[in-house]
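To the team - MRU complex, inputs and output below.
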Amino acid sequence: MRIDGKRMRTIWLNPDGWSVSIIDQRKLPHLFEIATLQGLDDVARAIEDMAVRGAPLIGATAAYGLALGLRDDPSDAGLAEAVARLAATRPTAINLKWALEAVSDAVRHHVPHVRAEAAYIKAAEIVEADVAVSRGIGEHGLSLLRGVVEANGGNPVNVLTHCNAGWLATIDWGTATAPIYMAHQQGIPVHVWVDETRPRNQGAALTAYELGQEGVSHTLIVDNAGGHMMQRGQVDMCIVGTDRTAANGDVANKIGTYLKALAACDNDVPFYVALPHTTIDWTLARGADIPIEERSGREVTHVSGLSSEGKVTEVQVSALGSHGANPAFDVTPARLVTSLITDRGICAASRDGLLSLFPERAA
Ligand code: MRU
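Output:
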């Protein structure tokens, strides 16, 4: 997608053939800065500190992290240590584990001195595959938006989304945003209600920013407004992403997603979850077993933003001495999900629904 009219991706290999660049998402939307990652520790910190975030992008970044780690130590022990370091960065998004396994499988059978090269090749494949997967989600989800506009006599379809499951969370297109961008590009009128998404405000800082850069009509709302707007008929559908989908169709996504699903159910608003196949954890029978990341309470007691002097500043919103609790994700049960939009098609949020699209997993 584009920033200031220029086509960009969220991560790329530099012309030197080994270092990796990312957009530092902690600075957006006020500052656009590119960070260069030169080693395993740079990558691990970028994921932990959320310079990169969003399940698919975390996976792709970790893949390059393994390549960088293998440049320094391609031994079996070096591979195991690099995998352990990266796997510990964030616990909820399953794409991290998936990407580390994919790269490990691609390099393990090689002699050590060619492992780094094999890892770079695999990381590049993961990146390209993610773009194709997001495009697939967009193509399948597009029919849902088009259907609403046709039924509404050509009026815009109003989509509510939570957090950032946009192109900044992937390599390109996004997951929840892919159908939105495709609709916009095809002239289908679409308007997006963007949840601000406290505590880190990925909706306000990232989703609103990237939709604006693409010229997609959108309005920022506080997290508590969605239920009211659904009662008033101002939301035609919700589309959110997921960091891990259990085999029964339960989905873990950014904290607050569950409340939106409850409100959508109460108001007969379709609640769709967009996901790449890399987000399905076939080893987990139900969402209650998904590990939920606990982040620092400081993300709750403090917010950062642009001061009237034009400086990015952090301020405290709570009383001195109050502590914050910060579960970063919640689990929405499959019964509240209207359908899953995957790169292979749309299915019911259930084991049978998922298996209808991924029959090779039946065993
Ligand atoms: O904590 P984050 O910013 O990594 O959480 C991101 C989300 O919850 C996204 O909605 C999810 O990763 C889906 S990404 C396409």
